[in-house]
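Deliverable D4.2, example record:
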Amino acid sequence: MKISLLTTIYNRPEHLRLLVDSLAVQSRVPDEIVVADDGSDRETVDAIRRLRPAGNIPLTVVRQEKQGDRRSAARNLAIRAATGDYLLFLDCDMALLPDAVAVHERRASRGRLLCGNRALLDAPVTRALFAIVPAPNEADWEAAWTTANRGEMDAALHLFRRHAALRRWHLARPHKPKLLGCHFSLYREEVERVNGFDENYVGWGYEDDDFARRLYQAGVQPQSVIEEARALHLWHPSMAPQELKRHRDRPNRAYFRRWRVPSRCANGLAKPVD
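Output generated by the structure prediction step:
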């Protein structure tokens, strides 16, 4: 199995550096890293160019110009550039504990979506990891794990189990159990089956729920690796638009709630032919 690790970035070069550093100490390193830049500023672009490959893992950078928050399009850009048959998706503000990639490889199966999560680091611990030269080692990541807040992760695991049980009885909502877009993996063929991410989602929210809904509709089964595949969220100020705290205010809500959504989106990896 060739594992491609895919991430998107917008103006967080130091967070990306720590993500790459965490991959160098994996017991099973990914076969390649693909970074999709969603129109970052020049400082970030230069920092990405200086990024040293982690543990000699090949690193590819692709870029799109900034035209709003186009995370779905950036992810599709990364998928097109990836050469692996298995895709592991992480946000650039994440870091993996040393056994996480091995867990994804061990639990991988065709027709299965592996849903992960993350524990939250605070600002002082994140700054301490940034300051380690040349890079954090296994002991540093394990020490950070002991300080992390796992409350959201534990709650997500409880909900995942509940929704998985409801799905077995055909009682779950179409996009449940929830896919947290910052940490998941599946075979490329499953991604291609639903034509990747729907690029009609621009702005904040719902693109991950849509992707999960279409995968489940296509017969892909969700499995939790929340406990096993340990991951950390590196602190930064929230990017969530504060004025959109209410779900009904989010710009993609009406599109997500439309009727008869097909499993294969039209505006995805492959584009419609005129």
